[in-house]
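Review form for a predicted model. The reviewer records the input and the model, then writes brief findings.
Reviewer: anonymous (R2)
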Amino acid sequence: MKLNNNLINNFKEVNYQLKTIHKPLKNIGTKKIRQELDIKIMKKLSDEELIKIRKKGDIIGVDGSKNKKGNLHPHYLVAISALAKSMDLIKEPISLYEVFSPLIDKLNSEKAKEKEENIMTELEAEVAIQSIQKYNPYIIMMDGSLMTYSIKCYEKWKELKRKCIENNILLIGIIEEIKTKEMGQVLKSKDIDIGDDVYDKEVLFGSLNEGEYINIIPQKSKKIKEDIDCCFLRTSSDPSVIAMDFLSIQKENMQQLCDIVYTLTPKNSRGIPIWLDIVDKEVKITDEMMNALIDTYIDKDLSNLFIKAKRDERSL
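Model under review:
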């Protein structure tokens, strides 16, 4: 396919629209926004400090993954996995799996997608709970917002939260793609109006220096009801921030948790603790594994009828 003027003009128009959206925020400026923030400083922990923390218990990373094979809804299978892995490599990781097809459950497209997400969050919560029972860690680090578990698997969330509190285990959720709009409320209370439809990632992009964080939880936030607090952190040279959810009752540990996340994050990275990247890599069910499982355990005629996509046979 060759580039043509119509396509180029479309991209130019999108660029103009994005500039228009960003203009009010740009006019306010980073300096003005920083003046209104209660910015705190993180530090890289020394080896001795890390050893002291590790003596209190394991640091467990938890993540989930999905691999989908097949055609359009409902003719497909989804293999869903969850993994809890200790930074103490001697200890065996805990993993759970479930295979789902909307064809079997007779669900429409919307309900099927919702069930996939619910299964994964429930598996993640369950491996986290099992890691408490098996390893009694000091910190459990979930990949994603803690609110996700409250919304998608409430009973498991209540159990996980209760066990963490009872066993003095620090529970956090690391959020890479921030989709909240909390900063608008905060700045509006300081007579800075950025509008109601600006995402926190846009407001905070470049507003924090590496090693800085802020603790913000507006009164209207849904997280308050679930006793969840939140920080925005810049943990690497990347100008984007990440977020860290934690239990409000454990707020006295906020500084230490931010320091640990900062310490576990490489400087020249996108800002996520490296242990979660390791867990993310290990939890994935690869395409090769998925194909092998289907070829071995699903009858070929059933696979051809229900799962195999015609596009797989394309030769060009």
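Findings: The longest strand covers residues 59-70.
Further findings: The two ends are 14 Å apart (CA to CA).
Recommendation: see findings above.
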